[in-house]
Amino acid sequence: MPFLLWFDWTWLILIPAFIITIWAQARVSSAYKKYSEIPAQSGVTGREFAQTMLTQNNIDGVRVQAVQGQMTDHFDPRNNTVSLSEGVYNKHSVAAVSIAAHECGHVLQRFKKYGPMRVRNAIVPVVNVATSLAFPLILIGLLFRENMGVLVDIGAWVYFAVVIFQLITLPVEFNASKRAMENIQASGVLTVQEQGEAKKMLSAAAMTYVAAMLASFLSFLRLFLLSRRR
Q1: Catalytic residues
Q2: Torsion angle of the four alpha carbons 85, 48, 175, 87, in this order, in degrees rounded to the nearest 10
C-alpha cells in the first residue's frame, strides 16, 4: 500500500513516447546506413546536388559547407548556410543526394516565404524561453504546493509552447521533403529506382519529427494531469 501511494502513475503516459522515439530513431538510422551504401549512378555528391538545386531555383547567396558528425545536416536561415555532414557532403550515395536535397528544400521555403516556416522561425525565441522555464516552475510548484501550487499550472501551459512548435515543424519538414523529391525528379540526378529509395529515406527521417511531436504532447498531458491533481 505505501508503494501504491508513492507511485506516480502519470509516468506511464511517457512509455509510448519513449517507444515511438526509439523506433523512429532506429528506423532512420537503419535507412541512412542502407542508402548510404547505395551509390547514385550519376556520381553526383551531396554538395554538388545542393549547389545544382540552388542554381536551378535561382537562389544566390547561400553557402554550402561541410560539418562534422553524422546526420548533423541542417540549414541555418540566420546566415543562409546549408551544412552537410561528412557522410553527405562529398559522398555520391542515394542518402547523400536525398539529405542534401531536403536541406535545400528548407532554403526554398525561406526564399519563397513558406508560411509555416516563417511562423516556426518567429516562435523559436518563445519556445527557448518556455523550455527553460517550464520545469523549474513545475518543480517549485510541486515542492511548495500549499503556497505556490499554481506554478504547476503555469509551468504546464508554458510547456505547451513546445507542443505547438513541434506541431508546426511537421508541415515544414514534410514540405521540405516534397520540394526535395520534386527537384530530384526534375533534375534526373537519380534513376527511377533510386528515386523510390530516396522517398523511403526521407519518409524514415520524417518519422523522427512525428515522434518528437507525440513525445512533447504526451509530456504536456502528464504535466497537465499533475496540475489537475495538485
Answers
A1: 103
A2: -20
